[in-house]
Design goal:
The complex is a heterodimer of chains A (about 260) and B (about 240). Chain A has about 260 residues and is an alpha+beta fold. Chain A has 12 helices and 5 strands. Chain A has a domain at about 100-195: 2-Layer Sandwich (Alpha-Beta Plaits), CATH 3.30.70.1730. In chain A, strands 2-3-1-4-5 form a 5-stranded antiparallel sheet. In chain A, about 10% of the residues are buried. Chain B has about 240 residues and is α+β, with helices and mostly antiparallel strands. Chain B has 2 domains: about 25-175, Ribosomal protein L16/L10 (Aldehyde Oxidoreductase, domain 3); about 185-235, no CATH class. Chain B has 5 helices and 9 strands; from the N terminus they run ββαββββαβαααββ. Chain B has helices spanning about 85-95, 155-165, 175-190, 200-205, 220, and strands at about 70-75, 80-85, 105, 115, 130-140, 145-150, 170-175, 225, 230. In chain B, strand 8 (about 225) and strand 9 form a beta hairpin. The radius of gyration of chain B is 23 Å and the shape is flat. The chains are: A alpha+beta (about 260), B alpha+beta (about 240). The interface of A and B includes residues 33, 79 and 131 of A.
């Protein structure tokens, strides 16, 4: 606060004569500047402090409504790279890959199921969705992406034994088949069941060969019909001759019949 | 856990991210890791009584505002005097809380040299200045009191530093190097993005509305952030 006005004294007596009063004077009264308690501020100072308070900026759209840019620094984790490589290998090496929903099972049931599947050379693989999804999106298996949501397991095998797999899975209610990729063809659950109902490969091959060979066999039988008829007649005649040998030999008989044709 | 568009975060178990342990290779330990004992009275006790000079409490600190040896410390957010009792409390609490093999602590405040006189109880005013009662050190706001460092994390050090900070005669907080930098950066940001066109500094330097009549000449320097020994953190 400013000290008592000295100017009043230097002005002389004239201003006082004119009836002039000095402006309000603030004498430092009471406590010192630095006190232990919170010193009461002059009201004008309080007003000044209230006016000059900090006003936070208020954007038009609150930041909570905007999606913040995800600053995710993708550190190339060696472990992640290893898992990705394993997934790629699994998809490359195996002919049959089945994706199943995995609900929590008791431990011994899990072990038994793995044992039965192992007998048919089917492996059970646990993969994390966050690793499989980027791997699949870059390969040709893009359409399998919707299956890799929530908890799932992979059943991979080099042979395509769908019937045995379905039989084992039927005995385990906690594992539900979602879809499969057999020999680079994506099948749904119904498709896998149909695939299992198909006859084995050799029988199917024999069936196709037979159906393909049907027409040529027909044409060959058509072509061979006249010589077959001729040989049948000749055989009949030989039999007649052999029967007639006991009776009267009729040699011009067959010559006449062959000349007639 | 990142919140989705609705604002709710769905917990999900993913791959475990294995973090490397922190690297403490560049840490040099001083000879004595524990805090030095501070005497109540300086080696040469003062004979002449000195005036009160409360301006050594007022305003921001000019010394010991940045870290030198350690990584974590106690920052004073107000002015005050530290006497021998405070020093002992700090020394013992930190000594109890820290591990002398892996951590070290260092004083950033000199031993008490300023004399404080006290008149005997129950006498009237007058009769001269009282005799010297005890010695104190003055601490201004923004000064570091102690520094702690070594092979430790902030989370390990924070409990006993907060314990000490609460017992000091002025408001204080435990800070790390990053925390202090963050505080300063936030202050600068606040100054820049303040939507209020009227700032204390502007009004005082231009003497708008004759405000300097009600303010001290020190307010030009203190700019409304300090009032007596108090530091007003919320002001810009």
């Amino acid at each position: 606060a400013p000290a008592a006005k000295m100017a009043a004294l230097s002005g002389g007596a004239a201003p006082w004569r004119r009836g002039w009063l000095p402006a309000l004077q603030f004498v430092r009264r009471g406590s010192k500047a630095v006190t232990r308690h919170w010193k009461a501020m002059h009201f004008q100072r309080q007003k000044l402090m209230a006016v000059t308070e900090y006003l936070a900026p208020r954007p038009a759209v609150p930041p909570r409504c905007l999606e913040a840019p995800r600053e995710r620094i993708e550190e190339d984790n060696g472990y992640v790279r290893l898992l990705r490589r394993q997934v790629e290998e699994a998809f490359r090496d195996n002919r049959m890959i089945a994706v199943c929903q995995y609900n929590s099972m008791p431990g011994e049931d899990m072990v038994m199921m793995r044992h039965y599947l192992r007998k048919y050379n089917i492996e059970v693989k646990f993969v994390l969705n966050e690793i499989v999804r980027p791997v699949l999106s870059q390969t040709k298996y893009k359409n399998l992406l919707p299956l890799f949501v929530a908890r799932n397991i992979l059943l991979v095998s080099r042979e395509t034994k769908a019937k045995e797999m379905l039989r084992v899975l039927k005995g385990v209610p906690q594992i539900n088949l979602l879809g499969a990729c057999i020999d680079d063809t994506i099948l749904s659950r119904q498709g896998v069941e149909n695939f299992a109902k198909l006859p084995p490969l050799e029988a199917a091959q024999g069936q196709t060969v037979g159906s393909l060979a049907l027409l040529p066999s027909q044409t060959s039988s058509l072509l061979q019909r006249s010589p077959a008829y001729l040989t049948a007649l000749l055989d009949q005649h030989i039999r007649q001759l052999q029967d007639g040998k006991t009776g009267t030999p009729a040699e011009p008989g067959p010559a006449q019949s062959s000349g007639a044709h | 856990l990142s919140p989705g568009p609705g604002g709710v975060a769905v917990p999900r178990a993913g791959l475990k991210k294995l973090v490397m342990p922190p690297d403490y290779s560049g840490v040099t330990f001083p000879e004595r890791t524990k805090l030095k004992f501070m005497d109540k009275v300086p080696a040469v006790p003062k004979v002449r009584r000195e005036p009160r000079r409360l301006r050594d409490i007022r305003g921001p600190s000019r010394e010991a505002t940045d870290f030198t040896q350690g990584q974590y410390g106690i920052l004073a957010l107000g002015g005050g005097y530290l006497h021998w009792g405070h020093f002992e409390m700090i020394r013992l609490t930190i000594g109890r809380g820290m591990d002398p093999k892996n951590m070290f602590a260092v004083w950033r405040v000199p031993p008490p040299t300023k004399t404080v006189t006290r008149k005997s109880l129950g006498h009237r005013m007058g009769g001269g200045k009282g005799p010297i009662d005890h010695y104190v050190t003055a601490v201004k706001s923004g000064r570091l009191v102690v520094e702690v460092g070594g092979r430790c994390e902030f989370e390990e050090v924070r409990p006993f530093l907060t314990q000490v900070a609460k017992k000091l005669p002025f408001p204080a907080i435990p800070v790390s190097r990053d925390g202090l930098q963050e505080m300063r950066r936030e202050e600068e940001e606040k100054k820049l993005n303040n939507q209020n066109p009227w700032t204390f500094e502007r009004i005082v330097t231009a003497n708008m509305l004759g405000m300097r009549k009600y303010l001290s000449p020190y307010d030009l320097r203190l700019k409304g952030r300090y009032w007596g020994k108090f530091f007003l953190k919320h002001r810009v």
